[in-house]
From TrEMBL:
UniProt xrefs under InterPro entries: Phos_transporter
TM helices/strands, residue ranges: 26-44, 65-84, 104-123, 159-183, 203-224, 230-253, 384-401, 468-498
Protein name, as recorded: Phosphate transporter
GO cellular component, one term: membrane
Length: 499
């Protein structure tokens, strides 16, 4: 971090004579430092949306998740972030108000980054997943109210954000619950789930690839030339590639996966027949854990299992036995969904890097362009090195502190399995893509939380930590005002004391 900051200062010092605001070089330097902290906070909080469920289901370890997220977050930041970052220039406020007072907009950008970073870091400390977009929007409104009053604030955008607190989790939760209902009914609850699972696999892969490819191409990454494609061209390409993937999965992946499952499952049954003829457990929970871990062999009757349960635990244990059995994926089912969940998580991380890097460096881009051009209105493209700078901060935040919110999303809110994790990832991605393109305001974070809660509740009525969900919702509710108040306080300090 220190070397990156020193390199940035050197570059800025060389270019200082080219700008019209050379007296405010110090604001630019402070802005770069705070932008890195803001990117760190985004990595510590928002990246959990991509890999929290994958870690919680045991499909990947925390270290593997960090490695994959580092790769895909950085790629997303560079390839997709340029277009998304430009929206900050005319987002929640009218920047033309600052013509002639460009240094005030520079100070405001620093204030917004500070307010957003502080609240996201505090939320990460509390293990609460919040929306980085809402943080930066609230912080932007905060500094603008101090600098220019209500003039130029687009209040309709704020109302749309408030609506997203309810729309996002509800819509995504419904989509995820519907998908998981069909997965459970037609695959998980079958005596032999493998045949139906293999038949459904090409469809799942096709939908996963099609939705995510459409999302990436429709975003319009300039470096990949996607910004030149018309919407119907993007749609046709996505459908075509999805069909190709489905064919490959049906003729190549499914036969290999079937053979792998048969070999592993038959050997497991053989071992269990030899070693599990009579089991002594001190609770139904320990029995269910053993079955969940190893799978129950066919032909093992109830008379062959001995259970000793304390009287005070018997009632609750027996009542929850069926739910506990239904909660855990069988080993052969887990193998069907493991790579699918990794795939959806990687796509989600790639899209997140492209979208949420703007939350980290959007104000920094505005700050840089104002300083470089001397004007609040600039049509210059976002420099790639700025996107890399934001991507680096996001990755550092993920490695250092990301485990806190990952634990909330993947374990604390509700237990996750590969099948439920896949349902959560795919349905929330579909919700974000569809809602965004028909004009409904949704938050990726809120969508993912809503999906986790809905699927957890569908799996088991007692599986969701409703107290934690209440705390998360309260954090959403106060995100805009708190980040706005912090930003306003810093802007007041700039306005009345420093500038």
């Amino acid at each position: 971090m220190v070397s990156t900051t020193l390199a940035t200062v050197t570059i800025l010092t060389t270019l200082a004579t080219q700008g019209a605001l050379t007296d405010y070089l110090w604001l630019l330097v402070v802005g770069f430092i705070i932008a890195f902290i803001l990117a760190f906070s985004v990595g510590a909080n928002d990246v959990a949306n991509s890999f929290g469920t994958a870690v919680g289901s045991g499909v990947v370890t925390l270290k593997q998740a960090c490695i994959l997220a580092t790769v895909f977050e950085t790629l997303g930041s560079v390839l997709l972030g340029a277009k998304v970052s430009e929206t900050i220039r005319n987002g929640i406020i009218d920047v033309t108000m600052y013509n002639g007072t460009e240094h005030v907009l520079m100070a405001g950008s620093v204030s917004a980054m500070f307010g957003s970073a502080v609240w996201q870091l505090f939320a990460s400390f509390l293990k609460l997943p919040i929306s980085g977009t809402h943080c930066i929007v609230g912080a932007t409104i905060g500094f603008s109210l101090v600098a220019k009053g209500q003039q130029g604030v687009k209040w309709l955008e704020l109302l749309r954000i408030v609506a997203s607190w309810f729309l996002s989790p509800v819509l995504s939760g419904i989509m995820s619950a519907i998908l998981f209902y069909f997965v459970r009914k037609f695959i998980l609850q079958k005596k032999d789930p493998v045949p139906n699972g293999l038949r459904a696999l090409p469809f799942f892969y096709a939908v996963t690839m099609g939705i995510n490819l459409f999302s990436i191409m429709f975003t319009g990454a300039p470096m990949l030339g996607f910004d030149q494609l018309l919407w119907w061209g993007v749609l046709l390409i996505s459908i075509g590639l999805a069909l190709v993937i489905a064919i490959i999965v049906w003729f190549v992946v499914c036969p290999r996966l079937k053979k792998k499952i048969e070999c592993k499952y038959l050997s497991l049954v053989f071992v269990l027949i030899l070693t599990m003829k009579r089991i002594r457990m001190d609770s139904y929970t320990s029995y269910c854990n053993a079955v969940a871990e190893n799978g129950a062999p066919e032909g093992l009757g109830d008379g062959e299992v001995a259970l000793e349960i304390a009287d005070d635990d018997a009632g609750s244990s027996r009542s929850s036995l069926d739910e506990d059995r239904a909660d855990a994926d069988r080993p052969e089912v887990s193998m069907l969904f493991q790579f699918l969940q990794i795939l959806t998580a990687c796509f989600g991380s790639f899209a997140h890097g492209g979208n949420d890097v703007s939350n980290a460096i959007g104000p920094l881009v505005a700050l840089w362009l104002v300083y470089e051009s001397g004007s609040v209105i600039s049509h210059a493209p976002t420099p790639i090195w700025l996107l890399l700078y934001g991507g680096l901060g996001i990755c550092v935040g993920l490695w250092v502190w990301g485990r806190r919110v990952i634990q909330t999303m993947g374990k604390d809110l509700t237990p996750i399995t590969p099948s439920s994790g896949f349902s959560i990832e795919l349905a929330s991605a579909v919700t974000v893509v569809v809602a965004s393109n028909i004009g409904l305001p949704v938050s990726t974070t809120h969508c993912k939380v809503g999906s986790v809660v809905a699927v957890g509740w569908l799996r088991s009525r007692k599986a969701v930590d409703w107290r934690l969900f209440r705390n998360i919702f309260m954090a959403w509710f106060v995100t805009v005002p708190i980040s706005g108040l912090i930003s306003a306080a810093i802007m007041a300090l700039f306005t009345y004391v420093i500038l």
